[in-house]
Amino acid sequence: MSESRSTSLAAEPAAAPATGTSGSAEILLELVDDSGVTIGTAEKLWAHQEPGHLHRAFSVFLFDQQGRLLLQRRALGKYHSPGVWSNTCCGHPYPDEAPFVAAARRTAEELGAAPSLLCAAGTVRYDLPDEASGLIEREWNHLFVGLMTDELRPDPEEVEDTRFVTARELKELQAEKPFSVWFTTVFEAALPGIREIAGRDW
User: Fold this and answer.
1) In whole angstroms, what is the distance from residue 200 CA to residue 202 CA?
2) In 53-84, which positions are buried (b, 16+ CB within 10 angstroms) versus exposed (e)?
3) Which residues are catalytic?
4) Which pLDDT tens digits describe the chain residue by residue (202 residues)?
5) Which element (helix H / strand E) includes 147?
6) Helix, strand, or coil here: 21?
């Protein structure tokens, strides 16, 4: 592990991006072991480059009052998986930031609206190469499900489009459009929690 790219958590400020020597923001995330225990930090892009480094992440699935899932199409300018459909929100906690806090924060930042309900729905570990970008998703992912009742005001730098879909409409969209490489894995892992929130139709 390169010392210039990874440091101990004790040396990093909590819940904030660091600033690199070039003056640009350097986003740090938590590296974890195979049990999900934090072992250090790494720069975000570096952690996603081959061979990949296991790190903490989160995925959010929010539903409206009719039981429809809120999807987002990722902005075309994003370096990772641009222009594809995915779950409501996903991302990485800052070092020392609780996954629940990160999930709520990032949902509000991307969609301009906060969840009215957010519940933990377990974790899932995966190693998924993304052939389109050449990056790899090697993540210990904390899953959250809940409700969205506020009006959406998406950040165009993060979100190209949004859509509420039923279970049937989701299958139809998956057959027609590209989705993020991680979507099916996190969706299936979150299904027990999804069904508690949105019903057995899912």
Assistant:
1) 5
2) bbbbbbbbbbbeeebbbbbbbbbeeeebbeeb
3) 90, 139
4) 333 333 333 223 333 344 333 334 689 999 999 999 999 999 999 999 999 999 999 999 999 999 999 999 999 998 888 999 999 999 999 999 999 999 999 999 999 999 999 999 999 999 999 887 889 999 999 999 999 999 999 999 999 999 999 999 999 999 999 999 999 999 999 999 999 999 999 9
5) strand 135-147
6) coil
